[in-house]
Amino acid sequence: MIDLYADTLLLVASTIRTATPLVLAGLAGLCAERAGVVDIGLEGKMLGAAFAAATAAAVTGSAWVGLGAGLATSLVLALLHAYVSITQRGNQIVSGMAINIVIAGLAPTLAGAWFHQGGQTPLLSGGARFTEINLPFAESLASVPVIGPLYSEVISGHNIITYMTVAIVPLVAWMLYRTRFGLRLRAVGENPEAVDTAGISVAKLRYQAMAIAGLLCGLSGVVLSTGLGAGFIRDMSAGKGYLALAAMIFGRWKPVPTLLACLLFGFVDALQGRLQGVALPLIGEIPVQFTIMLPYVLTVLILAGFAGRMVAPKASGIPYEKDH
Amino acid sequence: MAAARKLPFWADNILLPALNLLAAFVVSGIVIWALGDNPFQALSLLVQGAFGYQEAIGYTLYYATNFIFTGLAVSIAYHAGLFNIGGEGQAMVGGVGLTLGVFAFGPHAPLLGVFAGIVGAALFGAIWAFIPAWLQARRGAHIVITTIMFNFIASALLAYLLVGPLHRPGGQMPESADFPAGTALIHIHDLLGMMGISYDNNPMNISFLIALLCAWGMGFLLWRTRFGYELRVVGKSAGAARFAGVSVSRMTIIAMMISGALAGLMGLNELLGEQHRLLANFTLGYGFVGIAVAFMGRNKPLGIILAAILFGALYQGGTEVAFDIPNFSRDAVVMVQGLVILFAGAMEHLFRDPISLLFWRFAERKAA
After folding, report:
1. Residue A132 pLDDT > 50
2. Which of B147, B335, B348, B349 has the highest number of chain A CBs within 10 A, making it the mutation to test binding with A?
3. What domains lie within chain A, and their CATH numbers?
4. Where in chain B are the domains?
């Protein structure tokens, strides 16, 4: 019984860890799509930010400089996508895919040229990483039954970006639903003509939304290479940008349901890590290749509408043209 | 509006793609320069490496064959208004179908094995595309995301098969046993040799001709048949198609299955033509490059063939460049491809609008 409890706590803790980048990227996609810009380039932004953060942290030895570099990189890419989607009225899916492919090639190229470690950055340690923070009394309380392990395993012992994420979710929800800016942002994704008629610039609002998306997505990349990992590895985002997009759809373009969907994905990911090499009753040991598939299969099932109907913001993906 | 004016054929199909390519090359050149290498030297090495000698041309066309298949795959789905990013996964599963076909019939009759392999590749690719297509048509699941997920699933499935049921007995690598003797597509240099023309050895094989045939077939289907017309109507306006009595969901499924079959055929070149066994991740991103090829080629068969040769040259030449400029690796080639997608696919207004304006002014002056 105690073993089961401890096991569950470990699983919950690793769910929170793996869900962190998904939640941040999911919120980024949410801000973009609520404003009417489809952002399939989350994957590329995440990878770019992960690379920039690891590089800056490796050179300066400071994770915070890495954080700045990661955010800046993702912001630039988000504004590029904004320029293509809003000003150029280009195809948003193509633009997002192009950014993903450019970064998938550019990041290892730069890493190879600068560090000569086969497309990776050097291993980060100490101050160059956002390491786990032990909250006060975590160790002394660990021996207290039931609550002690819960506090020391699940609540304490995450990196600072995970704690920041806990604050960012309500912040994004507040911004969307309780501020004038949020109201306009949602309006521009549903009915840009109305916003335009009210004398508010559609383009400016969408650029602002993309900037927020860029920063959030940047943070998710930063946590990947300097928090959860210890350096940049080729293709380290491994489809997380797309999973986040799916979680956002599953969360019906709302912050809290998106958070829950990301936690579900995080849980499946944590579970697949635990399932590797374990013999289950009746089924036996599942080959590792099948457990790896789990999050992707889950995404397909969710998108296939086995969880109800999902309606996207009306104007998402459609460039706004004044003269029609 | 200037942008709405139609451009002359040569401006639309030659000048604009050239400008898009130039823009992608300029940005790539800046990256190469920033890494401390000479971009012009890289370019000259690239051209030399891609077209400089007989073997190089053979390799260029060998890579181009993959890109024709994947470019056509992206293109036919795009004409039906669908964005198939799953070419990579469809090619992998197509490779599995090809392998099963070859092993089922090859040991008894090699020629039958080759045909079974071709049918298997197309069939399995089509089936892998059918699932996302069905989910899109009947359940509204966004095809972009589902096809991406199917790439990941296909990759894991292939990895499983190659260490499990299809694993070479006693082998160490994740690969299948060699295809039965005689089940291979003939090399072009052997074909030329039979005709008395000597040509240096290279991996180009008759799947290049099959790819050309597919390109012609797609052009015929899309622009010369009723079915193709209906498919394009669905792509231009689903509402209009529905009004005209065309079933959009049926078209979605058929277009995606053709697309998947074309992607699956990529294995003909790589597996049946050259490797003669099934390998893990033999698709090497060719499925994604198909997007660039389709946009660069303006989604027309001839354009796709030319764009595929261009990308084949980029691949072959890029490999040669990497020998002299280590910073310019396969990854850098991927970056260039991404930039081409960006400029040719997403930012086409960047050059199109000013050029339209220019033509418009010129035409006015002539009239006055």
Report:
1. yes
2. B335
3. 2-306 (1.10.3470)
4. 64-299
